[in-house]
Write the structure tokens for this entry.
Amino acid sequence: MIRFVEETGSTNADMQALAERGAPEGSWLRAARQTGGRGRMGRTWESPAGNLHCSTLVRVGLDDPQPHTLALVAANAVHALIAPLCAGQARIKWPNDVLVDGAKIAGILLERTGDSIVIGIGINVTGHPAGLDRPVTSLAAQGAADAEAGALLERLAMLFAHWLAIWRAQGLEPVLAHWLLNAHPRGTAMRVVQPDGAIVEGQFDTLDRHGMLMLRLANGDSRAIHAGDIILG
């Protein structure tokens, strides 16, 4: 079920409230505009009309894979939606972004409430912000001028349900394999700004079986990264 509102503060906050009132898994909420959209690491996510701002929820069961790996499920779904529409090459960037030729086009934010994981997804459809410290793009800038947020969400909901079913029935392994196929290539240089501000530099190696990023350091050692802001190149 997809609900639509013209304007709200945050679809994630609204979906958290709906989850607490018993909303079923598979519920989606889309807003034409958000006034308080949030990204990872406390960033503001610009949410003008025309772009896709939406949230869904997953009720986590005892036999499910680890909840944080739903970020990989969502990334696979968003990539599958975006990649065929773009003139450039769409790639997934750990943990929760999709880039096209190195420019961010979509972001994903996971938040927990009770037994539910709320997954917020923002996709630049008709426009993208200017003046940021990193490149950004939109579907319109990538040649998909006819893309429309409502129709995109209908397709996204189906793709997410597909990957969620795989995650539940087959475990994390096929989700990881598909993620790696569409992510930044092994050996990609990256700088990781960790939550405490420490910076670690190295090359992307792989993801471990729990979905953590494995960084190859200059001395050849491998280091697991559990959280951080990734800067490529």
